[in-house]
Amino acid sequence: MALLLRGSSASQREWAAALIRSGKPVALPTETVYGLAGRAFDAESLAQIFRIKARPFFDPLIVHVHPDFDLSLVASRITKSEKQLIDNFWPGPLSLLLPRNQKFIPDLCTSGSSDVAVRAPANPIFQDVLLRVGEPLAAPSANLFGRISPVEHGPVIEDLGPKGLEAIVDGGPTQWGLESSIVRVDEENHIVNLLRPGALPVERILEVLGSDWSVKSSLLGNVGRNTAEQVPGQLDSHYAPFKRSLVVFESSLNWNLLESTAQKWFDRDRVRELSKVEITENCLIFDVGFSKEHYLDLPPLDTICLTQVHSDIEAASKLFMKLRELDEREDSYGTLIFSVLPPPSGGGLWPAIRDRLLRASINKGKPL
Ligand code: TXA
Ligand code: MG
Question: I need a surface site. Which of 11, 63, 96, 202 has the fewest CB within 10 A?
């Protein structure tokens, strides 16, 4: 069983660092989600990360640095605009794709790509372990491949304990509850390629770079989706609860839409018509903050609500925990969950919430 270390104890952080130095990955808190951290310069440590996570080798790892580290050991070149973003947003939830320093970063880390994703996490426990190890750490989210990213220590132990994880450092619930935003900066054309929307809203990046810059994005369900810029490993299918099925809707949710979807879905298993009562008993609304104006004429369905006050920050911080809880509920909501998506144009953290819901749903990339 994985050893549970306390992030508040210096000696236990040192223990974590010693394990990492000896080639054994340890789960650590970041300000986004928990990560499974191992030495980025050491192919053997990287292989352990892939093994514990049951992660395919085509899915590259983000390298985490301390702000005081020499970035040239990780990236071979940094442009003026990338430097601007680093100065403004590090430490924090921004991962930049930079040309890899092939001397130190093994192929395994980037799945063979000549670019490496890099970020400097803001969580003080992670930063302290970085300093103690004295080297950059590769750290994917500390969940089994394809599962929901962990925002507290319990799910990490559940997912990775049986897979040989040696230790996890507990730092309480993470601040953002969503992974970092991943971008590639095209200095020449003044374009920010948004490869994964995350905890740093893209409009904040544009504020720094200036009004002559624009964003291209590979968000699921977006018109003009830039699939050429999709990152490896950003699979359409991700984050799905095991036992239940999530159906996502683009705008409003009314009884007719819900009934026809439920009939279609349940019939597949049960080959019979369901009454209104049966449907309401077997369906659940997953309300990420768009209920009041978007659920029209519905009977009183059971609802999980992430935010009563339409706060993207509150919704993001509860999203992954609530998605995981869906698997743990011992009630009759056997199968269907309905959620209205935030609009693609929503600012702040809404695009990231939209992206994660689409990946978790059964109608991936194609909201009804
Ligand atoms: O907030 C985060 O970014 C968290 C915490 C632990 O830092 N980490 C995280 O890592 O979300 P992970 O492995 O679950 O997701 C990283 C994704 C990969 O799936 C891949 O899509 C992209 O980042 N990525 C990493 N390195 C890349 C590379 N060299 N080129 C393209 N995409 C890359
Ligand atoms: Mg992940």
Answer: 11
